[in-house]
Amino acid sequence: MPVFTRRFSESPGPGDPPSEAVSQTPRAETGSEAASEPESASASTTPATGGVPVTPESATPEPGAAARRATPGSRLARLSGITHLRTRHPEATRVLSWITTALAAALVLGALLLPNTLPAVEPRSFTRIPAEAIIGAVLVLGLPHRPRQAVAVLFGLGLAALTAVNLLDMGFNEYLGRGFNAALDWDLLPDAHAYVEDTLGGGVAIAAAVGAVVLVLLLAVVMVLATLRLSGLLVRHRPRAARGALIAGTAWITCSALGLTLFGGPIASERGAGALRVHAQRTVESLRDEAAFVKQSKADSFGNTPPDQLLPDLRGKDVIFTFIESYGRSAVEDPVMAPGVDRTLDTSTKALEKAGFAARSGWLTSATYGGSSWLGHSTTMSGLWIDNQRRYRTVTAGDHLTLTKAFQKTGAWDTVGVMPGVQKGWPEEKWYGLDKVYDAFDLGYRGPKFSWSTMPDQYALEAFQRRVHGRKHDKPLMSFVILTSSHQPWAPIPKMVGWDELGDGSVFDAVQKAGNKASDIITDTTRSRQEYGKSIQYSVTSLTQWLQRYGTDDTVLVFLGDHQPIARVSGERASRDVPVSIVAKDPKVLEKISDWDWAEGLKPDRGTPVWRMDSFRDRFLKAFGSTPHPS
Known about the structure:
Blueprint: H1 2-9, H2 19-23, H3 32-35, H4 65-69, H5 72-80, H6 82-88, H7 90-113, E1 129-130, H8 131-142, H9 145-176, H10 188-200, H11 202-236, H12 238-258, E2 261-262, E3 265-266, E4 268-269, H13 271-298, E5 318-324, H14 329-333, H15 338-354, E6 358-365, H16 373-382, H17 389-396, H18 403-410, E7 414-418, H19 428-432, E8 436-438, H20 457-469, E9 477-483, H21 509-514, H22 518-521, H23 525-550, E10 555-561, H24 567-570, E11 577-584, H25 587-591, E12 599-600, E13 610-612, H26 616-623
Parallel strand pairs: 1-4, 5-9, 5-10, 6-13, 7-8, 7-9
Antiparallel strand pairs: 2-3, 6-11, 6-12, 10-11
Helix pairs in contact: 6-7, 7-11, 8-9, 8-12, 9-11, 10-11, 11-12, 13-17, 15-23, 20-23
């Protein structure tokens, strides 16, 4: 009798499946006709009849009574056909339910234990006891129905956000050698979209952007459904769930207190909470850093130096500052890439010596890694450590003296920028102190793009010679040149052609068509490393041959890398160092930096001093006679 009474008196609450009440009806005692009757018309029993079914007072049910007595859960089940499916295929339904629950549990545990770097995504990383899962189970078991559902939804959304952040961390660590910064890095997403568009095409870029949005939304929906399902399961089996949570909590505390490990990692995990805590701290520190950097950028050791006391020892010289994209220390020392690059540097050194030039080379530690080249450019020129986009915006909005602007301030030089990678408005030209900027559309190029790079370096340098350097000037030139052919994905790579054959760049059509496809290189680490090395050889060769061809007794060339290539090319735990060289014919120029202890030639030695990139401006200004007058 209690079994039959429970069926009517303990109907499931909203959100709880009705299967528990239905399953307690003894199907064996009902005939085929009774089994086919509506659930609401079942007979009740009383002690007076000894358990024999007695029909209600009215044998004919009141219209709509069955619908009123049915629970919200059972009505939903009837509408969706679930009840019919369970009746016809009970075993299959049960197996499907188990599989769905197992997948929900795997999804939640996987999100809580997911590392934030690709190399760490191994089976052993998921053999942990997550504290967050235990706390979540305890909350679910102790809350009423509606608060329980709200907590489950919020927990699911939190897991979706955690997973998205971990995936962003993986991408940033793989390409930029650092984790994602929620306070600073959203500005990089449009640049990433533009890079994909330039490299793989507009269709791929749009598909990638739409796919990313759909993935995030789908992740949120699936995570919420998983946490709701698991919370309902825990409540339906409350006694066993409570015992399980107690056992798991005791095990976690014990493993944590004893420092027990498994497969090289702690068994007691708080990976999810730890990841969110790190990102929160990173965000807070970034906001504090911004306020401190504003004050720092206003102080300048050469801010009030009179024009006649800036760079007096370079008067009359044509000075060229050139950045080679992604030219990092790995190109010179990595066993895969270095042999070819080192041969190019040695060959170029000898060729320059034959032309009357001498060179000295050292190392600078870049403020960026794997990308965001403009941070390296601005750090070198400003003497400030600019390692994120917010610092960059702060400093370029002010009037901090850049090395290039120091030349302009003297009035003794005309200043010009050659920026083949710039394809839109570039307001930074005023901050850099450039009288004129030649962007991708001002150099007369009519040839094909080479992936992200708008034109080969050889052509950009030849156009610089035709339009600027080779013309007569009333004053010497200070030129700021950014070369782009060694920009990732390093496919296709230009090849050297005869300098007299360059024309409008159409000669590169055949070279571009015969080159590798970016899609074939970008996903292959080994080939990426090989092609990266070739691209550096090409850029160095273009620049040094240009200097041999067009350099004069008054030419001073300073060239360096802006950052190391992406992490999967430069290698695990690679430094942030980049080579820097000064080349000149006039021996007095190199005498000014004799106390720098730089190596002779274009290749710095392993023992050559390493400076931070932000120290270069002041060292250069002082070496060539500038007098500090702090602002």
